UniProtKB/TrEMBL annotation:
<dbReference type="InterPro" id="IPR043901">
    <property type="entry name" value="DUF5787"/>
</dbReference>
<feature type="compositionally biased region" description="Basic residues">
    <location>
        <begin position="323"/>
        <end position="341"/>
    </location>
</feature>
<dbReference type="Pfam" id="PF19100">
    <property type="entry name" value="DUF5787"/>
</dbReference>
<protein>
    <submittedName>
        <fullName>Uncharacterized protein</fullName>
    </submittedName>
</protein>
<feature type="region of interest" description="Disordered">
    <location>
        <begin position="310"/>
        <end position="341"/>
    </location>
</feature>
Amino acid sequence: MTSSEFAFELAVCQWAERAWSPSDDAAVLVARQFGTKHRRWDTIVLECDPVGLQERAKFGTESFHSDLLHVLRHAPADWTYYRDALPDPGYPWRYVRESIHEAADRDAIETRKRSNRIEIRRVRPYPDWLRRIIAIENKPDLTASAARNLVPQLERDIALSLADEVWVATATTDERVEPILLADLPAAAGVLTVDPESGTAETVWQPRSLSVDEPGTRILDRPDDDTSAARFEYVDTDWKHERRLAIAERAYARGWRAYADTMRPDCRHFQLSADETGVYPHCAAKDCLPTAAECRGQCPSYEPEPPTWRSMDWPLDGGPGKAIKRLLTRRRRRQRPGLSE
């Protein structure tokens, strides 16, 4: 199953969803391939306030981008002219008006016009549902070169401190000392060894909690030689808070099971396989767990589902490919309390 980094990534997500243990009573959400334009993480674990997560469900399954969050978080309880209700966004107000209309179309706020002025009020308060973000970099086979390439990424994550903790997950070995512990990784990064076959993981190095409530440093360029100066810039706490919440929103909407959206579940060979560790995509033609790059229309083994599978001869509406997508969607929704099936 761990023949690819994608397979290992799914194993980490399955384990985190099942076994991640926050230090308090937090609810856990897991997503994959998320981040900002400067950095993309393999796996994200969100530790959430359980009550706040229930309240977030009242806004639906779709995510809110940063401009919409600016409106939702500051929408008043009573009718107010929008420029008096919302802080100056730092960009033209016409974009705020677009976000107001988009939020109203999604029934997230109410709007009305008085004296040719747009007034807004909230439908319900936007909850403070996010507690912590855990970023995990997945490297199943951590060779010496892979470790060297990973160090600059981890140093950037730690300096920016957008996540509360930064981890590296690697496949467990039979060595007396795990090879990853011999790599020259930053001490602030945690280390997790994962056994995909048994669906278990072990913490072999605890991470340091990062200062998410303080300004961060974005490393723009770090030359390899010792004579050239590094380039960096500071980011303030407001920016970090907005980015963290926007990342959490996208993770809430998509989760980690959206891989079927970039694969071809409409192929007659596409299946889901299940074992004690979880559910995974499976290609019956190649007898393997395929990646998104392999499972596409250009694959030599690709065969569309027979039309009869999508009509009377198939008991589920839309054929087995559609049924697989519905199954994954239902499993994703179950991790978001308050959403109806």
